[in-house]
Design brief:
The chain starts with a strand and ends with a strand. Helix content is about 35%, strand content about 35%. Strand 6 (about 150-155) and strand 7 form a beta hairpin. The chain has a seven-stranded mixed sheet, sandwiched between helices. It has one domain (about 5-170): Aminopeptidase (3-Layer(aba) Sandwich). By secondary structure, the protein is an alpha+beta fold.
Length: about 170
Amino acid sequence: MSLTFRECTKLDLDELVNISRDTFIAAFEEDNDPADFKNYIDFAFNKEKLQSELENKNSRFYFVLEEEELVGYFKLNENEAQTEVKSKDSFELERIYVVRAHQGKKIGAWILQQVLKLTKQNGKDYLWLGVWEKNAAAIRFYQRHGFKKFGTHPYYIGKDKQTDWLLRLEL
């Protein structure tokens, strides 16, 4: 398996919309109210919103490729683009998704290693993220990689108030 990653540009917008929607739906659709979920998808992953995020100088999206095939993506935020901490000493890993057909190949672990390298190269002291408290597999994954819980915050899927664990890894 030969993986690479590259930063997304405005030319990648349509593909970014598609992979964002597809991977989020695959991960969470069955655990949420259908109407709330559809409204959330239409809001969070519409072309205008993702274009705005892509143009934010403090947010970066990256595509992960196996050979030439898009198999995942991730998003890093710094400074005021971070959703919670907003520290100059950290990156927030806001999104990390692997296309369902490619799960189980340890691509997520490879992505996390690349994220940690980027975090260190950018002189950050720690990496943090939010993960849904009911996503036990993801929580175990991050804890295996040394992340520790430091708080919680609400996350809304439509009107449904959910809770994310905030996890942090000191570098």
